[in-house]
Amino acid sequence: MAKRPTSKPRRSARSKALEVRVMSPRIAWFSLLSIVGKTAKYACILAAIAGIGWGIWQGIERAFYQNPDFNLQVIDLNPNTAIDETQLAEIVQLDLTGSLFQIDVDEVVKKLEARPEITSAIAERHLPGTLVVRVVPRSPRAWIATPNSDLAKSRKPGMMLVDSAGIAYACPAQQLELAASLPIILLPLDPMHPITAGEIISHPQLKHCMFLLNSAAEADAEAVHWIESIRQTTAWSLELVTREGTIATFGLGDHERQIAKLRASLDHASAENLAVRTINLIPKHNIPVTLKNEPQAPRAIPVSEPTPAKRREDRHSQDLNTILNRN
Fold this sequence. Notes:
- The protein is 41% helix and 19% strand.
- It contains nine helices and twelve strands.
- Helix 6 packs across helix 8.
- It starts with 7 loop residues before the first helix and ends with a helix.
C-alpha cells in the first residue's frame, strides 16, 4: 500500500523545528567568529592599501612639493599694458618662496580674468620652477568723463577708459602712454546708467558718440590725434571739439559726408592762415562757419585839415593842369 505524501504545511513545520534544534549556542559562536575574522581580513587589506597610498603621497610630497628644485624661480609674463610681474604676484597672492606645484593655475587664471583691464589669461607650470602667464589686455578706444570735468586731468592712470566693446575700466599705469592721445567722450551723470569698471556702459549717448568716433577713424586714421572730445548736445546733434579748439556740430548720421566737409574746411582755413571757431556740418549746403581770426579791414590813416595857403596852392595846380590840358 503506497504511503500518502506529507502535506506542505506539515513539512514546513518540521523544517523549522529542525533549524531550531541545529542552531545551538556553540554553532552561533563559531559563526560570529567567522564574521569577525572576515571583517578583520578586509580591514587589514584596507589598512594596507591606505598605508601604501600614504607612503606614495609622502614620496610625492618629498619628491616634488618639498623639493627645493621645484620652488618658484621665474615668473614668465608676456609684455603687456595691463600688469607687470609685481602686480601679478599681488593679484594672485603668489608665494614667491613656495613650490611651483602649490600654485593653482586655474585659480590664477580666474583672478586675472576678473580684472577689468584684462580680457583673457592663461597660466601654466613649466618645470622645474617657471610659472608662465599670458594675458591679453583691453585695447582702449576713448576716455570717459563728465561734461563739467577738467579735461586736462581726465587723461591719467586710474581714470576711466572704454574699449571698442563699450566696457569701462580704469587706466593702468602701463597703458597711459598708449591712451594719452585718445579723445574724451563726455557723458552726463545718470543714476539709471552708472559707469562701472568691468561692465558694459549702458548710457544711451555713448552709442552715438562712439559711432561718430568710429566714422572719423575710418575716414582718417589720424582722427584720434586731432579729436579732443565728443559729446551729445541735443537729441539730434553731436559736438566734436578738435585739439585746435574748433567746435563742429554733427548730426546723428551721415558722418562720412560731414567728416569730409570738416577736413576740407580746416585744410582751407589753414591754407589761408585762418582758424575755424565753429562749423555746423548738418546742412548739406551753405554750411555756417565762424572764424577765430577774421582779417580786419584796413585801418584809415587820419589826414589833417589843409591850411588856406595849401588850398590856394591846390587851386593853382588845378588851374595850371586845366590850361595844359586845353593846349
